[in-house]
Amino acid sequence: QVQLVESGGGLVQAGGSLRLSCAASGRTFSITVMDWYRQTPGKEREFVARMWWSGDSPYYADSVKGRFTISRDNANNTVYLQMNNLKPEDTAIYYCNTLPRNYWGQGTQVTVSS
Q: Is 88 helix (H, G, I), strand (E, B) or coil?
């Protein structure tokens, strides 16, 4: 199994920045992809960004392109999501997810005030 722990969420004003972390442990050798998703109450979970373990170029949802950057620390099996120029509509619980086996973390709350 793979365990995922997200951290770094918080309350920030519009235009501000946050950096989220997702630390993976366990059978991390099985991971090929790590994604960030987000969810707000009453809505489906939304894809945000993808990091390929192979090193292929990451990609982003159109809603965050140019503002969010996904990166990773191989040595610590950690993926980061740098979020700049945050907007109130970015408010959500952010989750990391792995493929090919679908593991999820517990999520971290991001709140952006206007």
A: helix
The phi and psi torsions of 55 (rounded to 5 degrees) equal 100, 0
For 27, which DSSP code? S
Question: 3-class SS at 17?
Answer: coil
CA distance linking residue 80 with residue 22, whole number of Å? 6
Please report, for residues 54, 63, 85, the alpha-carbon distance to residue 106 in angstroms, rounded to integers and kept in the order given.
25, 23, 25
Q: Quick one: pLDDT at residue 105? A: 95
Cα–chain-centroid distance for residue 24? 12
Report the C-alpha gap between 96 and 49 in whole angstroms. 10
Residue range 18-76, pLDDT digits in tens? 999 999 999 988 889 999 999 999 999 999 999 998 888 999 999 999 999 999 998 89
